[in-house]
Design goal:
This protein has 163 residues and is mostly helical. It has one domain. Helix content is 62%, strand content 7%. A hairpin with a 6-residue loop joins strand 2 and strand 3. Helix 3 packs antiparallel against helix 4. It starts with a helix and ends with a strand.
Length: 163
């Protein structure tokens, strides 16, 4: 188990925010709805509904690991989160920060992205035990130059909201 270099390279090569505000509804194999206003993005990512959806999906991952792969979960989770924050995240966040400033988007967006990236990388780390389709979809959205920013409908049915 390890963070795959391919994932790190993809995040470093990502053209962050390149397609924000452009239509993306036909771009993905999963349901989405698009928003094209930064104001709506900020409202959604700071809202309790989006936070609950993301936390529930993280809970699905950690709960599964705790119940089915307790040794690996207990031994590696905190250690790997620390490695991600120290080794991988700084360079990715620096690159995102530059793009955020270029686009003149609010720095508040970074907090949501940072949290999601940690869980995406942890899901990657534990991918031999569990597949998080939610965080796989979130990753696909980022890599396509968009930003996931909310949930429409009652989770788990419904749609990801994409900027």
């Amino acid at each position: 188990m390890e963070i795959k270099q391919v994932l790190y390279n993809s995040l470093m090569e990502c053209n962050w925010f390149a397609n924000c505000g452009t239509d993306c509804n036909s771009e993905y194999a999963f349901d989405t709805c698009m928003v094209n206003s930064e104001k709506v993005v900020l409202k959604n990512i700071s809202g309790i509904k989006w936070e609950r959806v993301c936390m529930e999906e993280q809970g699905n991952l950690t709960g599964y690991l705790h119940m089915n792969h307790r040794t690996e979960y207990n031994e590696y989770w905190n250690k790997e989160v620390g490695i991600i924050k120290e080794k991988y995240l700084p360079a990715i966040v620096d690159k995102i920060g530059i793009k955020l400033k270029e686009k003149k988007y609010s720095p508040e967006i970074m907090n949501d992205i940072r949290y999601n990236l940690i869980i995406i990388m942890m899901a990657d780390f534990y991918s031999e035990f569990y597949t998080s389709y939610f965080y796989t979809n979130i990753l696909e959205i980022y890599l396509s130059g968009h930003v996931p920013c909310g949930w429409q409908g009652k989770h788990p049915s419904g749609k990801l909201i994409v900027f």
